[in-house]
Each structure stands twice: as C-alpha cells, then as structure tokens.
Amino acid sequence: MFEHMRSQALELDWNALCAILGLMIDESLMAKIVSLNPADRLELIGAVWDSLSPNDLPITDAEKALLDARLADMESNPNDQSPWPEVKTRLERLLR
User: Fold this and answer.
1) What is the C-alpha separation between 45 and 66, in angstroms, rounded?
2) Does one domain contain both 42 and 65?
C-alpha cells in the first residue's frame, strides 16, 4: 500500500517538475526527456549535474558555515561516520 502511495507521489512530483521545466526548456527537448525511462532520466540528471562548475552552485554564508562545521566534525571524528551502503540500507529498511 505504501509503495503505491510513494509511487503516486513520485509520479506527481515528476509531472510537476515537467510542467515547471516545460516553461524553461524547448518543448521538443522536454518531450524527449519525458519519453526516457527512469534510469535514463537519472543518467541525464547526473550528466547535467556534472556539467556544472562550483561557481554555478552558489551557497549562502549560512550553508557554507554548516558544511564547514560538518566537514570539521567528520575530520575530528572519523570513526563516528557511516559508509553510504550502511546508511542506504538503514533508509531502505525505514521505507519498508
């Protein structure tokens, strides 16, 4: 039941995103993007993300301070970290 609800929510979010992007992106390009399967859309997102430089991603002073604090904590407490596969597994269990 929850999987169906989550699937519907993701579909609604994708439809909303398409509507927003449709205002910014050429209609024929948007049609091509929408026709891609989810794996290909994710690959496209990664390619677009990788095309950005650090200067394309402005952050506020507050965000920079938070990132600096988290990095300092990670460096000060290296044994207090969880590898991504463990975090992913815990999150997947929570979503079941």
Assistant:
1) 26
2) no
What burial letters (b/e) apply to 5-17, b meaning 16+ CB within 10 Å?
eeeeeeeeeeeee
Contact by Cβ (8 Å): 47, 36:
no
Write the DSSP symbol of residue 80. G
Is the domain of 39 the same as that of 5?
yes
SS3 category, 59: coil
Residue 81 near residue 74 (C-beta atoms within 8 A): yes
CA-closest candidate to residue 21, choices 43, 47, 51, 41:
41
Is there a single domain that holds both residue 8 and residue 40?
Answer: yes
Reported as a single tens digit per residue, the pLDDT across 10-65 is 455 666 766 666 566 777 888 898 899 999 999 999 999 999 998 898 899 999 99
Q: What is the pLDDT of residue 9?
A: 47
